[in-house]
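Quick illustration for those who missed Monday's session on complexes.
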Amino acid sequence: MSLLQQLQQQQQKSCAEVLAKLKKLKQKTPKNFDETIHKLHEEFFARIDCLECACCCKTLGPGVKDVDITRLAKHLKLRPAQLVERYFILDSDGDYMFRQSPCPFLLPDNYCSVYEARPKACREYPHSDRRRQEQLLSLHAKNCKTCPIIFGIFKELKTES
Ligand code: SF4
Ligand code: SF4
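Prediction with iron/sulfur cluster bound:
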């Protein structure tokens, strides 16, 4: 069984354990927290092929900004208004959300058909290589049910230090 499959299986059983760890981390984050998470990020991404998963593209709606709409419209040779009408709705925060899930740009082999022009939120997902990881713990708690890598990082993380 691949690491991805193992993590997907464990996600079903051990999510509560990882969520409890994330809650504890909100009270006290270990020293060098960014460095530790970034190292685990590198390790998990080296061992997991996102093309075998695509759970984020299948189930989550990234928040899409005006700048993303402009870039995507140019890439698809559409006018921004046409792109929005075809694929997006506006949410209460003023972000655009895909009208449908899975994402309309996800191909059957899990490749992204607009990869070079994909929204910033897609590029940054699952946010485990960003700075100030202590500020992203609530986001990681949301994502640990979706993303096997986030689940794996926080399952693996030692919190004693
Ligand atoms: S735009 Fe591409 S990367 Fe973003 S959700 Fe859709 S398929 Fe995934
Ligand atoms: S959910 Fe996580 S592991 Fe799966 S494709 Fe997205 S980033 Fe990769």
